[in-house]
C-alpha cells in the first residue's frame, strides 16, 4: 500500500498545527536521530497525537478504531504472534472467512509488515489506532497468553532453584534421567513448547545469559525475544532436551545434535536439536519441522550471527540474486536445498534447474539438464521465466569463463530485474566472497551491469575437519596471536563472539580457551563467508578496481572472512586450533 506521507506533513503546516521553524528543526533532529519528524513534534508537545491520527486517516483513507474498551477473542488475537505484534505495532482485532482486520499505530507500520498477508493467508484490512488503544489491546493479548502459559512457565522455572548447584555432576546417569523425566521439568518444557507452537515458531533459542536465560523465537525468518527465565532454567531445559534426543548427559562442553518427535494439535512435530557450549552455559536451538518439512535449517548448516540475519532478510524480500560458491564437496548443494526449503510456500511459484536432483521437494518444479537434447541451464532458465516463477534457482554453473555460464548469469540477472528472486550455485575456487564477484564481473566478454545490480548476497563455503571428542585444552602464545592477527581481524571476531554470547565479555586472546585434537577427525564442518553486495561495493565493481580494494570494502562492512569464521568456530570448540593455524 503506497501512502504519500508528504501530504500529511503538508497538511500539518497548512492547518497551522505547527509553524515552519518548529517543523524544520524537527526534520533536522529526526534525520540525526533516525526518527520520524512527527514523533519529534509529539515528544516536544508541539503536535497533538490525536490531530496526527486524524490527518493520517484523512490522507490515507484508512479508518480509525479505538480498541481500549474492546475485548478481542483469543482465536483472533493469536492470528498474529505476540512478538510480531510488539515489534511492529500491529494487532488483529476482528476477522471473517476471507479477511482479517488489523490495527496499526501509524502508516509506517503498514510498510513493515508486508509479509502479514502471506502469513495469515487472508486479505488484510488495516485500521489506524493510537498508542493508548494499542497498548491496552497488547496488554490484553499478553494477559491471555501469559495467564495460560507464561506465568506457569515462570513459576515452574523457579522451582529449579531449589536444586543445589553442582548436584547434577555428582548424580549417576539413572538419577539424572529420573530428574529429566520429573513432573516439574516436564511441565516447564511442555508449556514452553506449546507456547512456541501456538505462535507458529520455526525455531526456539534457549540462550543462557549472565543472570538469566533469554528465550527467543524465530518467526517468518526473524528472531524475536519471547521471555526471560531464571538462570538455572537453561541447565534443566538442556537436560530435558538431551534426554529426549538421546544425547550425552555427562558433559556440558560438547556440541551435540539430535532429534525427537512430539504430538501437537493432531500432528506429529519433528524437532532437530543443536546444543552448543557457551560461557554462560549450554545454548540449545530447537528447529521445529512440521509434517512435510524437509528438516533443513540454516542454523544446523552452521550459519549464525549477522550473516544469518542478512540472509533471512534477503529471503524475506524475495528479490535479488543469492550466489553460493565453493569447491567440490563444500556443502553448496546443502545450502541450496536449505534455502529452497525456507522459501517453499503455496503462494510462491518456485522452479529449479539442476544437474541432477539430489533432494526431491514437493511444491517445487525441478528441471534436470539434458545435454544430449540440447537442454542446458540457459534453456531451463528461459522455460521457468516463461512460467512466471517467483523464484528461479540454478545448481549447475561450473565454469564462469564459459560463454554458456555467462549467458546463464545474465538471464538470472534479468529475472532479478523483474522483481523476482534468483538463487545460483557456482563450483569454483576463490580466496574470498569478493573474489567470486570479481571473477564474475571483471570479464571483458560481457557488460556486467545487470549482474552487479542484481547481486544481493554472495556465500563462499569450505569444509574443514570437525574437532573430535578426544581433545585437550590449548591457549595461544603471544607469538601465535601476533601471527594470527596478520590475517584475522581479532577485534571483529571478539565482538562477534560477545554479541552471540559465546564469550561472557571481551577478554585477552591469551585467556581464551581453545582445543587441540588428540585423535583423528572423521567428520567435517562447514565454514562460510557471507557478504552483502552493498551500494559501495557495487560502485567499486562498476569502476573495475583491483580485487584488494573490493575485499577491503567488504571487510569494513563487517563480513567475517573464511579465516575469521574458522577462528570463531575454534573458540566455540567446533574445530581444532591446529586446523585454524594451518588455515592461512
Key words describing this protein structure:
584 residues, 6-stranded antiparallel β-sheet, alpha/beta
Explain this structure.
The chain has 584 residues and is α/β, with parallel strands linked by helices. The protein is built from 25 helices and 18 strands. The strands form 4 sheets. Strands 12-11-13-14-10-15-18 form a 7-stranded mixed beta sheet, sandwiched between helices. The chain has a 6-stranded antiparallel beta sheet with strand order 6-5-4-9-8-7. Helix 1 (5-14) packs across helix 4 (49-60), helix 16 packs parallel to helix 17 and helix 18 crosses helix 23. 38% of the residues are buried.
Topology:
Elements: H1 5-14, H2 20-33, H3 37-43, H4 49-60, H5 74-77, H6 82-88, E1 90-95, E2 99-104, H7 107-112, H8 116-120, E3 123-128, H9 131-158, H10 167-170, H11 173-180, H12 183-198, E4 203-208, E5 212-219, E6 222-230, H13 233-244, E7 256-264, E8 267-278, E9 281-289, H14 305-317, E10 320-326, H15 332-343, E11 350-354, E12 365-368, H16 377-386, E13 391-397, H17 403-416, E14 421-427, H18 433-441, H19 449-454, E15 455-465, E16 471-474, H20 478-484, H21 490-499, E17 514-517, E18 524-532, H22 535-542, H23 547-556, H24 562-571, H25 577-581
Parallel strand pairs: 2-3, 10-14, 10-15, 11-12, 11-13, 13-14
Antiparallel strand pairs: 1-2, 4-5, 4-9, 5-6, 7-8, 8-9, 15-18, 16-17
Helix pairs in contact: 1-4, 2-3, 9-12, 16-17, 18-23, 21-24, 22-23
Amino acid at each position: 500500500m503506497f501512502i504519500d506521507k508528504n501530504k500529511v506533513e503538508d497538511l500539518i503546516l497548512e492547518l497551522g498545527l505547527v509553524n515552519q521553524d518548529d517543523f524544520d528543526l524537527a526534520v533536522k533532529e529526526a534525520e540525526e536521530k533516525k526518527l520520524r519528524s512527527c514523533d519529534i513534534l509529539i515528544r516536544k508537545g508541539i503536535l497533538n497525537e490525536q490531530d496526527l491520527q486524524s490527518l493520517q486517516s484523512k490522507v490515507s483513507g484508512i479508518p480509525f478504531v479505538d480498541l481500549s474498551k474492546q475485548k478481542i477473542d483469543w482465536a483472533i488475537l493469536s492470528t498474529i504472534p505476540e512478538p510480531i505484534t510488539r515489534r511492529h505495532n500491529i494487532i488483529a482485532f476482528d476477522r471473517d472467512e476471507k479477511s482479517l482486520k488489523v490495527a496499526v499505530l501509524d502508516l509506517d507500520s503498514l510498510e513493515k509488515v508486508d509479509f502479514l498477508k502471506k502469513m495469515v493467508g487472508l486479505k488484510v484490512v488495516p485500521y489506524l489506532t493510537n498508542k493508548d488503544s494499542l497498548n491496552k489491546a497488547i496488554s490484553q493479548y499478553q494477559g491471555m497468553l501469559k495467564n495460560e502459559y507464561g506465568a506457569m512457565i515462570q513459576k515452574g522455572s523457579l522451582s529449579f532453584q531449589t536444586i543445589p548447584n553442582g548436584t547434577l555432576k555428582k548424580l549417576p546417569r539413572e538419577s539424572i534421567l529420573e530428574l529429566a523425566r520429573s513432573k516439574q521439568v516436564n511441565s516447564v518444557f511442555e508449556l514452553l513448547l506449546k507456547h512456541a507452537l501456538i505462535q507458529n515458531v520455526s525455531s526456539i533459542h534457549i540462550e543462557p545469559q549472565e543472570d538469566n536465560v533469554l528465550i527467543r523465537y524465530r518467526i517468518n525468518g526473524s528472531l524475536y525475544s519471547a521471555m526471560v527465565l531464571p538462570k538455572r532454567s537453561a541447565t534443566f531445559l538442556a537436560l530435558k532436551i538431551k534426554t529426549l534426543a538421546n544425547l550425552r548427559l555427562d558433559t556440558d562442553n560438547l556440541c551435540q545434535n539430535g532429534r525427537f518427535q512430539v504430538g501437537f494439535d493432531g500432528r506429529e512435530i519433528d524437532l532437530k536439536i543443536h546444543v552448543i557450549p557457551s560461557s554462560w552455559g549450554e545454548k540449545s536451538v530447537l528447529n521445529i519441522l512440521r509434517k512435510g518439512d524437509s528438516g533443513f535449517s540454516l542454523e544446523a548448516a552452521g550459519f549464525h550471527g549477522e550473516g544469518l540475519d542478512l540472509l533471512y532478510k534477503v529471503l524475506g524480500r524475495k528479490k535479488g540474486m543469492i550466489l553460493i560458491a565453493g569447491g567440490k564437496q563444500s556443502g553448496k548443494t546443502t545450502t541450496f536445498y536449505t534455502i529452497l526449503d525456507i522459501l517453499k510456500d503455496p503462494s510462491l511459484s518456485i522452479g529449479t534447474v539442476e544437474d541432477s536432483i539430489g533432494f526431491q521437494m514437493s511444491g517445487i518444479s525441478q528441471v534436470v539438464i539434458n545435454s544430449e537434447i540440447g537442454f542446458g541451464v540457459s534453456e531451463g532458465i528461459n522455460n521457468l521465466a516463461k512460467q512466471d516463477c517467483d523464484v528461479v534457482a540454478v545448481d549447475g554453473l561450473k565454469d564462469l569463463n564459459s560463454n554458456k555460464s555467462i549467458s546463464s548469469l545474465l538471464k538470472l540477472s534479468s529475472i532479478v530485474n523483474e522483481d523476482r528472486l534468483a538463487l545460483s550455485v557456482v563450483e569454483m575456487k576463490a580466496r574470498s566472497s569478493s573474489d567470486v564477484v570479481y571473477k564474475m564481473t571483471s570479464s571483458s566478454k560481457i557488460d556486467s551491469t545487470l549482474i552487479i545490480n542484481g547481486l544481493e548476497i554472495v556465500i563462499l563455503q569450505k569444509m574443514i575437519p570437525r574437532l573430535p571428542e578426544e581433545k585437550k585444552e590449548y591457549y595461544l602464545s603471544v607469538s601465535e596471536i601476533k601471527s594470527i592477527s596478520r590475517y584475522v581481524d581479532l577485534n571483529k571476531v571478539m565482538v562477534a563472539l560477545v554479541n552471540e554470547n559465546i564469550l561472557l565479555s571481551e577478554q585477552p586472546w591469551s585467556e581464551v580457551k581453545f582445543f587441540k585434537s588428540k585423535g583423528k577427525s572423521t567428520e567435517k564442518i562447514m565454514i562460510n563467508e557471507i557478504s552483502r553486495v552493498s551500494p559501495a561495493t557495487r560502485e567499486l565493481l562498476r569502476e573495475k578496481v583491483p580485487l584488494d580494494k573490493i575485499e577491503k570494502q567488504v571487510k569494513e562492512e563487517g563480513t567475517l572472512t573464511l579465516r575469521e569464521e574458522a577462528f570463531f568456530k575454534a573458540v566455540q570448540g567446533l574445530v581444532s586450533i591446529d586446523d585454524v593455524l594451518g588455515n592461512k
